[in-house]
Specification:
- With 233 residues, this protein is an alpha/beta fold.
- 35% of the residues lie in helices and 18% in strands.
- The strands form two sheets. A six-stranded parallel beta sheet has the order 3-2-1-7-8-9, sandwiched between helices.
- α5 packs parallel to α9 and α7 crosses α8.
Length: 233
């Protein structure tokens, strides 16, 4: 059965109460990127950065997966072929919905040692004095990819995109690279492409098909289509 690759963005978690970055009342309307989401910000004021991510982690821990997350978990378990899910999101709602995902921008539920690179399960709140469980240095930072840093798993993602038959983008703005370029890579490999988004994105013209509306409606309907098609002789 033809392999499917899915890219998800903030739009898939919006209906779970996780505000997108570009909402009028969203995160970047309240905080300056340069103050909380760059390596320079962490070096300059690590306490402010940790407080910001502690706040975000608390909101994520309280959030519940929605119908779109559950549908992708069902697809991954029931589809008679490979289903790779790559997410730009740092929440764990895909996992709560039963899916295994590749977190290209890191995740709130893990911590990273800035000194030795060790990762561990993040506490509810990080503090400057927290020692790394491995090297014991007080160099705890969120395990998220900040602006100016290279996303995780890029080599593996490139291999997946080169082998996929269908590429689906869900809830992404098409404004953040390198993820915004994945549709081009998939097309170069001969894949069909589909966009499921609340509204047209910056890269809608690059897709073979686009469907617009809430993720909790579009994604479950599309998943049922794919599973029904897979059952046909």
């Amino acid at each position: 059965m033809r392999p499917i690759t899915i890219l998800t963005g903030a739009g898939i978690s919006a209906e779970s109460g996780i505000a997108t970055f570009r909402d009028p009342g969203g995160i970047w309307a309240q905080y300056d990127i340069e103050d909380v989401a760059t390596p320079e910000a962490f070096a300059r004021n690590p306490g402010l950065v940790l407080d910001f991510y502690n706040m975000r982690r608390e909101k994520v821990r309280a959030a519940k997966p929605n119908a779109a997350h559950h549908a992708l978990g069902k697809l991954q378990k029931s589809y008679p072929g490979a289903v790779h899910i790559i997410t730009q999101n740092v929440d764990d709602l895909h996992e709560k919905g039963g899916a295994e995902v590749i977190h290209m921008h890191g995740a709130h539920h893990t911590a990273l040692c800035a000194a030795c690179g060790h990762r561990w399960l993040a506490p509810p709140a990080m503090a400057l004095e927290d020692p790394c469980p491995d090297c014991r240095q007080p160099a705890t930072r969120p395990d998220v990819v900040w602006f100016g840093e290279v996303p995780y798993h890029m080599e593996r993602i490139g291999e997946i995109l080169s082998q996929t038959a269908l590429f689906v983008s869900i809830g992404t703005s098409g404004a953040v690279y390198p993820a915004a370029g994945f549709v081009r890579l998939a097309r170069q490999s001969g894949a069909e492409t589909l966009e499921l988004n609340l509204e047209p994105s910056e890269i809608t013209p690059l897709f073979d098909q686009s469907r617009h509306g809430p993720a909790t409606e579009l994604v479950p309907a599309w998943v049922e289509e794919r599973l029904q098609a897979a059952l046909r002789p």
